[in-house]
Design goal:
Structural class: alpha/beta
CATH superfamily of the largest domain: Aldolase class I
Strand content: 15-25%
Helix content: 25-40%
CATH architecture of the largest domain: Alpha-Beta Barrel
CATH topology of the largest domain: TIM Barrel
Number of domains: 2
CATH class of the largest domain: Alpha Beta
Number of helices: 16
Largest sheet: 6 strands, parallel
Shape: globular
Strand order of the largest sheet: 9-12-13-14-15-16
Number of strands: 16
Length: 458
């Protein structure tokens, strides 16, 4: 007998949040898998920027961009005590809790509720969702999964209020939970190593999707010291490029979706095996779509051919992970890119038609022991290459190679309290790289170009 399962995407509680093509992809993949196992699936998105009750209540919709990104609804709330040191508004991003309660009233017959989680320090929204679900649907088991649940598993078990906490990939675990609680047989279980065997995510449950995320792989061939990719996905596995084209064509032709975002960490790695045949496949089928890569792509394999393919295929948003121009730090954090590789990649991208402001280069700031001058030199180097530097504030992640170094360097108790992982705090700031020095760098990045370099002005 099939069960009724409710999927919930929680609020974000933070000092700042913006919808850079954000969707709960793992949760919606589980929705597709549950349907393949004959279960009925429903969905509530607490971040829904198109919520009609919110429009009726507040009279104004969040500003959205034509490419499918934009603002969330936002309400200022009380800061947790441990975050009062930061003199900024702390907000709940998403729909009003009373609207969420009203929506839950439509799902009184649910057999199971699945709640996802993203950043480790966004757990307050997760906890509030679980608390309200428990009040509105008493006796209904609640399962928590996602990044926070996996990276802070013990914290989630102890404090979330969920009946089950899933650590890592959830496909097999969710079906086993249904079997344990209800005796439900597993009718369809895809091979863990074959991503193309998974049913498409349940994107049809979204409220007028203005973009859809696509994933071509799980895991990453690199082991960068600050990144949790290999913790969340133990193996690097990929889809067949033409199956990815099939999925893009499905959502484009059947649902009218034009904008697609790529979520994976290694989209451009070994380009002859994935991205090049994928782009040739898109061209062959005449798909007129736009693509966005906000995650931070690897640029080591960018050459003249790949640059032209990306530009001609409609890749409008391209961001690359460079992290630092300091050779020593490049080696110690993973060695995935060197300065000359960035310089050559930007030349190829510029020749293909991209403007400097189109080529976003992420630079890590606030890592343990970092100096202000190190960040300033990295900014100057990116500018000298003809690209756009973007500061990416470091957030310490449990289990990564840099974690113990972060614990030792941080003035905050990051081991016990995930709220201190918040990148707005600069959790590993020091006397040299202070919050004030960071603000000066940010302000200078926003100011009109001058004659002097960044290092000259700090």
């Amino acid at each position: 007998m099939s069960k009724s399962v409710l999927l919930v995407n929680p609020w974000i509680y933070d000092f700042a949040a913006y919808d850079f093509w954000l969707k709960p992809l793992g949760l919606l993949y589980l929705g597709g898998l549950l349907r393949a196992n004959h279960h009925t699936v429903s969905y509530i998105d607490c971040l829904n920027p198109r919520s009609l009750p919110m429009l009726e209540k507040f009279g104004k919709a969040p500003k959205r961009h034509a490419y499918g990104h934009g603002r969330f609804f936002r309400q200022v709330v009380d800061k947790p005590k441990c975050l009062e040191i930061l003199p900024r508004n702390y907000c709940r991003y998403g729909i009003d809790p009373d609207i969420f309660r009203d929506e839950l009233g439509r799902y009184s017959g649910m057999d199971l509720v699945l709640v996802t989680s993203m950043m480790t320090y966004w757990y307050p929204g997760v906890f509030e969702v679980i608390k309200i679900v428990k009040e509105a649907l008493p006796g209904t088991p609640v399962v928590l999964g996602g990044k926070y649940a996996s990276l802070c598993y013990e914290h989630a078990q102890a404090h979330s209020g969920a009946d089950w906490v899933v650590n890592g990939r959830g496909e097999m675990q969710i079906l086993e939970i249904l079997k344990t609680i209800f005796g439900e047989p597993i009718r369809f279980l895809p091979d863990d190593d074959d991503l193309d065997a998974l049913p498409y995510p349940a994107f049809d449950l979204l409220d007028q999707p203005d973009q859809i995320p696509i994933i071509t792989s799980l895991g990453c061939p690199y082991r960068c010291s600050y990144c949790a990719s290999h913790l969340l996905h133990r193996k690097f596995i990929r889809r067949h490029p033409l199956r990815v084209v099939d999925e893009i064509e499905h959502w484009h032709r059947n649902f009218g979706v034009i904008d697609f975002s790529f979520y994976d960490d290694a989209l451009l790695a070994e380009p002859d095996l994935l991205i090049k045949p994928l782009l040739h496949g898109l061209k062959k089928r005449g798909l007129n779509c736009r693509f966005h890569c906000p995650n931070g792509l690897h640029l080591r394999d960018i050459d003249e051919e790949l640059s032209r393919l990306l530009f001609d295929s409609g890749f409008k948003t391209i961001r690359f992970g460079f992290e630092t121009s300091d050779f020593r730090l490049q080696k110690s954090t993973g060695g995935k890119v060197e300065n000359e590789e960035l310089r050559l990649a930007v030349i190829h991208l510029r020749n293909a038609g991209y403007a400097p402001e189109d080529i976003g280069i992420y630079l890590l700031c606030g890592i343990p022991g970092q100096k202000t001058a190190d960040v300033a030199r990295s900014i100057d180097f990116v500018l000298s290459c003809g690209a756009k530097p973007i500061l990416a504030e470091y957030s310490p992640i449990p289990g990564t190679k840099m974690w113990e170094e972060a614990v030792a360097a941080s003035p905050f108790d990051i081991r016990r309290e995930p709220l201190y992982h918040n990148n707005s705090l600069l959790s590993c700031r020091n006397d040299d790289f202070s919050y004030e020095a960071y603000r000066r760098l940010k302000a200078k990045l926003k100011s009109p170009p001058g004659n002097g370099g960044f290092e000259d002005g700090i």
